[in-house]
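so my prof wants the structure for this chain in the tokens format not the other one, which i didnt know existed until like an hour ago. anyway here's the sequence
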Amino acid sequence: MKYLIVGLGNIGAEYQNTRHNIGFTILDAFANASNVFFTDNRYGATAEVKLRGRTLLLLKPSTFMNLSGNALRYWMQKEKIPIERVLVIVDDIALPFGTLRLKTKGSDAGHNGLKNIQEILGHNNYNRLRFGIGNDFPKGAQVHYVLSNWSDEEAEKLPERTEKSGEIIKSFVLAGAQNTMNKYNNK
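here's what i got, hopefully its the right format
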């Protein structure tokens, strides 16, 4: 059984440690903990993790954030992975820093990556892990905020939150979305 785990982010060194790239950061940590490496492929960098008889295809799209749906669709079709076994990892300014929420559907909440995925899929019924990045920015400075680096305090707490995200990914694959939401949401 195959799963597609998609971490959203922007390619390029200038975006590497930004809030908007938390999807890439989480997948990098997950791959590192699993002793696997990403290789460049069509529409993104991929890595495979085996977990109790299941295969997790980790994908960091090489498209920019607002075209993430193209990479997701390509790999879903290529690997014949149904939407129920897809998990998209995304930053969320509506949640306080480090808050983790698994959802099985919902709006794009103004996030360009999710907006494009919804356009490509034609619906919003797909699993997503929302990672709270907070909203500590003045009016009109949202773009600068999401594309800036973590504060020192956030950077210090980031490894624990990325590890917890890895636990949620494993639970999603092994126990399903509903059980994972019951266990981890609001914790």
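also thought this was worth mentioning. DSSP finds six helices and seven strands in the chain.
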